[in-house]
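lol ok so funny story. i was supposed to be doing the assay writeup but got distracted and ended up predicting the structure for this chain instead. priorities right. anyway since i did it might as well share w the group, maybe its usefull for someone
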Amino acid sequence: MGPSLPPPSARSLLQSPGWGAQLRVALQELVTARAPSPPLAAFDFDETCIFGDISETMLALIAGDTGADLVEPYLRAVARDPLSAYLDLVDTLIAGRTEPQVRQLALRTLDQGRRSGRIVLREAMRELIWAMHRHGWEVWIVTASPEAVVQPIAERFGVHPHRVLGMRCGKDTQGRYAPGVLEPYTYRQGKLDALHAATGRDPVFAAGDSRTDEALLRAARHALLIDRGDATLRTEAEAGGWWIQPAETLQPRPPPPPPP
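and the output, tada:
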């Protein structure tokens, strides 16, 4: 695994000011509880581990590089048929590229996304994942973004590339990703199916932000909804006894404006 950010301080499990007081205590108790075998945790990536969407940010970067009109047609396609649009997006992002090329493009997207404010690595989620690692948890990221795109960024959270499950394409004889996404598609129920195929079990803990994460959240013994304002999803979370964390409290304060 490549270099990652230094681990959060071990003085306290969850120090980020973003966590609600009661949720902080509940998460710390969960993380440190003894278990006969490594507990399984599953995290969505876009808008959960990070603020923003790495695939959409990469699409905008490619559009800027090539001058192609990519973003607006993609958004219109999402409005018509989200899954079909996501599958086409995977092809646009990685088909015809090698794994090292995708990695380089993903890291460039991360760098430019952080500079522009389109992408923020959520420190609260990073410290939660590190705390789980320190206490023997098996942590996976399950994402609807391309697996090869998320893998190098997951390293910043201390998650090994082999524990990232996302949209996958096969490779041709020259090692380039081939068009066509392989099943199971990591979307809605497919996220849980992929996790089952990789681990053979349901998660003890799952975190997500949208309806595409519902299957994972429902399957988990303890679920955390990053609430971005979907009233229907919040109602389901309340009925299901899920933990709820407002997304805006996990955001860093914007930098102060430059002096005049």
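The chain has a mean pLDDT of 93. The radius of gyration is 18 Å.
back to the writeup now i swear
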